[in-house]
Write a structure and sequence with these properties.
Layout lengths: L6 H8 L4 H13 L6 H8 L8 E6 L5 H5 L8 E7 L2 H10 L7 E5 L12 E7 L8 H11 E12 L5 H9 L20 H6 L5 E5 L3 E4 L2 H9 L8 H18 L2 E4 L2 E6 L1
Helix pairs in contact: 2-9, 9-10
Amino acid sequence: MSKMTDQIYLAKEQYKNASNLDARAGLHERFSVNPYRWHRWVFDQFEMGSALRSRILEVGCGPAYLWRENAGRIPAGWDITLTDFSPGMVQQAREHLCDAQHPFRFGVTDAQEIPFPDSCFDVVIANHMLYHVPDRDRALVEFRRVLKPGGRLYAAANGRSHLREMKELTTRFSLGAELLTDLPPGFFFLDDGLAEFAHWFSAVELRRYEDALRVTEAEPLVAFIRSSFRANSPAEGWGALTAFVEQEIAEHGAIYITKDPGLLVAW
């Protein structure tokens, strides 16, 4: 089994806490060129209609980036449940939102077996997590099951060109960052969702988010790659990568990296 979908490895090592995820999120936070930040853009895609109250489930909430970014924008009538398969992530989400004005519910949940009754949520959110699910069809059936009639699924993913320059660097210096280069057969890309979701939903829409990275410091880029699953690459590889990135920045002012994220909306 690939580590990309190894639930024990992911929960106990890669995502036992937010440190690896924070290293990757930090690069995007500091060096993304689009001033309309990702989590604010995602929040603004939610379509709740005219309902005063909406029940929302996020599956794979991580350390609650989405809700921390939009803490002051949440309508009072939203009933929000945040879940993740990693107990460590759920605990960090609790800690980050302990002083939030809006209440949240929390739980440890497998996307393939959601412990809620049929037709109980208006919205299900799956933000950059479906590529970690061993049986995506099973998860999509569960998403559909817990959604009310007319409810919407918002699932974020990346296109095939996402971070392509970073993948090239990882391969060039033999760093073996599985998250970037050793993608298993059937890995879930953004464009795949149109056909895949159509098996379970009557309508699917793809919304792209335009962005790129303009990286002006070597250390955050190297930290991103170090966080990407394998820390046992030869030391000389990391040194060579760091020297190369520093030289590129010195000569060109920055390293530019393609981003290709987006959102699949299904109902």
